[in-house]
Amino acid sequence: MRNIANTIKRLNEQRRLSQTTGTKSNTRLRILPDFGSNPGDLLAWTYIPKTFEPGSPLVVVLHGCTQTAADHENGSGWSDLADRYGFALLFPEQQRKNNPNLCFNWFATEDTTRGQGEVHSISQMIEVLRDRLSIHPAKIYVTGLSAGGAMAAAMLATYPEMFKGGAIIAGLPYGSASSIPEAFDRMRGHGLQESHVLADRVRRASDYQGPWPSISVWHGTADRTVDPINMEAILGQWCGLHGFDQTPNTGMLNGHPVRRWSNTEGTAVVEAYTINGMGHGTPLKGVGENSYGSPRPFMLDVGISSTWHIANSWGLLENERTPIVEQETNAISHQEPETPRHANRTVSGVIEDALRTAGLLK
After folding, report:
1. Which sign, positive or negative, has the C-alpha torsion 110, 112, 113, 116?
2. Which alpha helices (DSSP H) does the chain contain, by range?
3. Helix or strand (DSSP H, E) at 187
4. Where are the beta strands (DSSP E) in 146-226?
5. What is d(CA 224, CA 354) in angstroms, rounded to the nearest whole number?
6. What number of CA atoms fall less than 13 Å from residue 56's CA on the CB side?
7. CA 131 to CA 115: how far, in whole Å?
8. Closest by alpha carbon to 241, among 272, 209, 274?
9. Cβ distance 232 to 334 under 8 Å?
10. Which of 25, 84, 115, 216 is 20 to 30 A from 195, comparing alpha carbons?
């Protein structure tokens, strides 16, 4: 007869294995084992649809605080899109021993420096999947919510050569905090640096020379967890990187303001979706055309699917009709000055320009 100590040991081992192998309960995700040294001590989950073929894209999806990979997969609708269009999904997952609230440590230098910590773990996951599945190397994308959005920004900064594009939902700019107190200050909208400082932090994060990934930024106006001024800080950071010195195209989509900055070929490479009245979470559309996702905590049905629009902007949805942005004005001039004026402006200056463009400030 087994003694109590042996029984407890056996049960703990079974629990550990259930957490790190096979299929996670209540989800279609599968564990990705043996993806490298994993210095950030993260878990990796994947969803590879039956429609996947070699050479297809990969989307990396980063959950928010208090969420698991399964929570985000169940609510966001990414796996439903993957089924329909045949691309692969990677869901890195934080462990409670690394962060009690399951937040990615986007504010910790040791986890957001190239070759170290959590960003290095995620890069290893991507490399392994890319090689095992023959992922198209020029069709890899990353998105995330909240702390996951901030970590998506960190991935775009530290490993920009890996990504064609990224999307940050209710997140924060890379390099804006280096401690927990600073992280809370930035979340409240305090102490954000000027755009040229934030852009330089991305430039110094690797020896990459460009071209920079495209970026889509989403934020709710009623977010009380991460102040919406962080959206403007992210835009200032990435407009500075892309060298944009211009007023964006502006318009409305499903009643929400949209801003787009395009390159000389007319392709939008920086875009911003301001979701009126939305709190902290991922924008979803529960019913109707282009509806994906399931409402739950931090997954908010506001009548617009960020998942669908982000995937569409990346060209993942073949033969889908591009949504019409109402009242769009083409205010872009394709000047490329040696030192972009936008990169040297403050966050408040970016906001003032946006308000002027919208006719809300003279």
Report:
1. positive
2. 4-20, 69-76, 78-85, 117-133, 147-158, 180-187, 195-203, 229-242, 306-313, 347-357
3. helix 180-187
4. 165-169, 214-220
5. 21
6. 23
7. 19
8. 209
9. no
10. 115
List, for residues 53-77, the tens digit of each pLDDT value. 999 999 999 999 999 999 999 999 9
Cα 300 from Cα 281, distance rounded (Å): 6
Domain 23-357 superfamily per CATH: Alpha/Beta hydrolase fold, catalytic domain (3.40.50.1820)
* Residue 357 pLDDT exceeds 60: no
Tokens of 87: 């691309």
| Distance, CA of 297 to CA of 73 (rounded, Å) | 13
* Longest distance between any two alpha carbons in the chain, whole Å: 82
Are the C-beta atoms of 199 and 240 separated by less than 8 Å?
yes
Local confidence band at 293 (pLDDT 50, 70, 90 cut-offs): confident
Query: Rounded to an integer, what distance in angstroms lies between the CA atom of residue 168 and that of residue 147?
Result: 10
Nearest CA among 333, 203, 223 for reference residue 277: 223
Compute CA 52 distance to the chain's CA centroid, rounded to the nearest angstrom: 22
How is the chain split into domains, by residue range? 23-357
Query: Residue 180 corresponds to which tokens in the numbers above?
Result: 């927990």
pTM to 2 decimal places: 0.83
User: CA-based angle 160:290:230, to the nearest 5?
Assistant: 40
Q: CA angle at residue 340 from 339 to 343, to 5 degrees?
A: 115
Just list the catalytic residues.
146
Encoded tokens for 229: 């001024």
Q: Give the phi and the psi of residue 190 in degrees, each rounded to 5.
A: -100, 140
Neighbour count for residue 357 (Cβ, 10 Å): 17
How far, in Å, CA of 325 to CA of 27, rounded? 35
Tell me the pLDDT tens digit for each residue of 22-61: 445 567 899 999 999 999 999 999 999 999 999 999 999 9
What CA–CA distance (Å, rounded) separates 89 from 67? 17
Q: How far apart are CA 268 and CA 143, in angstroms?
A: 17
Query: Dihedral of CA 282/283/287/288: which sign?
Result: negative
Report residue 319 as tokens: 């033969």
Q: In sequence order, what DSSP letters do the residues of 92-114 get, joined into one string?
A: EE--TTT-TT----TT-GGGSST
Find where tokens 């109707």 sit.
288
